[in-house]
Amino acid sequence: MATTAIRSAALAIVLGSGLLGGRCLAQPASISEGYRLAAALCARCHVIVASGSGSWTDAPAFESVANRPDMTPGWLVAFIQKPHLHMITDIYTPAQASSIASYILSLRRN
């Protein structure tokens, strides 16, 4: 009985974290929260909507980030939480970074 619960929990972690190498398996609420956060915190440097117009910086558009062949949910979440070039010193919680990553990966073309 306990073994089944442990296996179920492990499977949920693997699927939820995107460790299977596929697209982020985020829920729509997480994607919409990620968009809200991106609009408030990232849009000053990044183009955050698919096929949006250019930004004033050379920061990559979220659609471009999503479509990089080597992009993984785990890498993206970790990167979002680290300050990067020209980024204003916002500190993102793991949940915020996960939501932003879910939104970015929702822009991936099939």
From TrEMBL:
Recall the taxonomic lineage recorded for the source organism.
Bacteria, Pseudomonadati, Pseudomonadota, Alphaproteobacteria, Acetobacterales
Q: Which UniProt keywords apply?
A: Heme, Iron, Metal-binding
Q: Which InterPro entries does the record cross-reference, listed alphabetically?
A: Cyt_c-like_dom, Cyt_c-like_dom_sf
Q: Which GO molecular function terms does the record list? A: electron transfer activity; heme binding; metal ion binding
Residue ranges of every copy of the Cytochrome c domain listed in the record: 29-108
Organism for this UniProt entry:
Limobrevibacterium gyesilva
Identify this protein by name.
Answer: Cytochrome c
